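Intended use. Records such as the Aspartate carbamoyltransferase entry shown here are meant for training and evaluating sequence-to-structure methods. They are not intended to support clinical decisions.
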Amino acid sequence: MGFRQDHLLGIEQLAPDEIGEILDLADDYVALSRSADKHGDALKGLTQINMFFENSTRTQASFELAGKRLGADVMNMGLEASSIKKGETLVDTAMTLNAMQPDLLVVRHPHSGAVDLLAQKVNCAVLNAGDGRHEHPTQALLDALTIRRKKGRLHRLSIAICGDIAHSRVARSNLILLGKMENRLRLVGPPTLMPAGMAELGCEVFEDMEEGLRDVDVVMMLRLQKERMDGGFIPSEREYYHLFGLDAEKLAHAKPDAIVMHPGPMNRGVEIDGSIADDINRSVIQEQVEMGVAVRMAAMDLLARNLRARRAAA
């Protein structure tokens, strides 16, 4: 069927075969990135603008590196450099950027739906690098690629997503993607950080880490999103770590070959014990970072192919 999207705004719009196509191409780009000559030409002649209205290290750096490895002209634009600081609306900013004739626009924004609004106003391909609590599609895709490479498959696995589910766009995108690929999903965390109605989505919900991690194949820890919290969601970080932080004792309830994931940045001693995060036999956190570059290369490549096809047909 092929990859049929004009933008990558979320996982919700992707069919399982499209997810598979991104991951298959990303596998090729892992090999390219590990080679002596890391450069391709899939985006040669195209302009990529990275527009980040929230701070980012991993996502912005990997999108920039992905674009450059594929030959794009890449421009980074942070909030400090934008006229939104001076009162310009998001739509006016979009129209200004559109007049510069970009081909790929990568956007992170603190408000859910903002990236979708931008996509309606520009003539280029838009990639969602995280919007509010809504979605973070490339994070879910890189997580999926990491799981598939480590486990040899991406279906019928038992996967526990643990921690601050309520504020996490990473959790939302992973729930959608891993659900589409027929995995058994568990959510583990305190009631104050668990959105209502999760059990109705086919997830098992646990308030006890040891029960929630029992015999799972994958343990995915989430960052406490303190910047999105406006109340007392947890008694203290120390108490949170005692109950929900991943340590060797809690991990022992998962399968012996279970892998440990975290989207970063990590709060060591809050969400995860440092020795677990650094355990080369269990932790795949550094692999996630590597897969992020490859997945973003694949997503931009596929969107650029469709963009060129649309322009040629116009």
